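Running this now, will post back.
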Amino acid sequence: MSERKSIHSKLKGSSRKEYVENISFMIIVLSSVMVASGIFLGSFIQGTVFIASFGSMFVMVGITVYIVSQFIGVNNG
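Update: finished.
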């Protein structure tokens, strides 16, 4: 019997640093999907290009979270 793993268990790493890095990776993947779909749909449907602009904002959030995870690694040695 195979169990389904929840998203939280997939993101959980062996340390707090890995957990935050995995969250930043998921944010960046989600934002890249938003940018790609916003550009694609913006070619056909008026107003959906805003999905791409929100996605680009989330890229910055993901990068910031990644930088924070690197500072966590420096403090914990």
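The first helix runs from residue 7 to 11. More later if anyone needs it.
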